[in-house]
Structures are given as C-alpha cells and as structure tokens.
Write a structure and sequence with these properties.
Helices cover 47% and strands 19% of the residues. The chain has 149 residues and is an alpha/beta fold. A five-stranded parallel sheet has the order 3-2-1-4-5, sandwiched between helices. Helix 1 links the parallel strand 1 and strand 2. Helix 1 crosses helix 2 and helix 3 crosses helix 5. It is globular, with a radius of gyration of 16 Å.
Length: 149
C-alpha cells in the first residue's frame, strides 16, 4: 500500500524513537524512507546591524551540522535494517509547511511522524507541527505516540 515514507525528525528522544519505528514499519512493508529535518532560518536576525557575515555563516554551518547528525541517525537505522533511505534538510521557520512540501516533492505516500502530545495551554501556545500537518495536508499521516520523553 505505502511505498515511500517521509520521516521528519527534530532530534528529540520521541522523534528518534519514532524514526526507529518508521524504519521497522518501512521494512515490514518493503517501503523506502526519506528522513527530513527543517533547520531554523536566520531571517529574524539577518538585518541586525551587529550581526557579522561570519556570525551568519557560523549559524548556518552549525544548523547544517546539527541536521546532518539528526539525519545520520535515521539513515544508519535504515541501513541496519536494509531499508533504502534518502535525507533532506531545508531551512524553514514553518516546519509543517516544509514537511508537506518535501512529501509532495519526493512523491511520498505517507508521513510517519511523532506527536509530543501537548495539550491545554501548552498546546495552544507552542502549537503542534503534527496537528498542522494533519490539518493542512492531503497525504496520509501515521502519528506515533511513543512512551519516550
């Protein structure tokens, strides 16, 4: 039924557990995965007069290195299970939009992601990227609610 899963990761313990579950699921249905991470954008501080080009470059380099680490975790887990895995990182201050765009651009037929289970005031203030993906997307979403975190 599903052949290509998009697996967003933010590096949290729950996200790492979800990635492992996604790899197991992909193996069980003979699907491939694309691991995905949305890096924060520097846009808010980009025009600050005290922000030097070196500082901007350092921020970008650190964000990419962090994304590489997160995506390497998923790729290594997939390789250990002989599941084909590509990785994608983008800069976006709106991760849900980037997730949906990546799923469409990569022809994914399922998004497999975590839910932190934020409720009440915290849920209202912080918001849920998973909820936004569910609300705005047309691609099926499998939400993993693990016991981690």
């Amino acid at each position: 039924m599903f052949q290509h899963l998009l697996v967003p990761t933010d590096g949290s313990a729950l996200s790492r557990d979800t990635a492992l579950q996604a790899v197991r699921f992909a193996k069980s249905i003979d699907a491939k995965i694309t691991a995905f991470h949305a890096m924060p954008e520097l846009r808010l501080l980009a025009n600050h007069p005290g922000l030097t080009p070196e500082t901007r470059n350092s921020f970008v380099e650190q964000a990419r290195a962090h994304a590489d680490e997160l995506l390497a975790f998923v790729k290594e887990a997939a390789q250990a299970q002989s599941v084909a895995c590509q990785t994608v990182m983008v800069s976006s201050d709106h991760p849900h939009e980037a997730i949906l765009r990546a799923a469409l651009d990569r022809d994914c037929d399922l998004i497999f992601m975590a839910s932190h289970g934020r409720r009440g005031i915290e849920g209202m203030l912080v918001g849920s990227e998973t909820q936004k993906v569910l609300t705005h997307g047309k691609i099926p979403v499998l939400v993993w609610r693990g016991q981690t975190e």
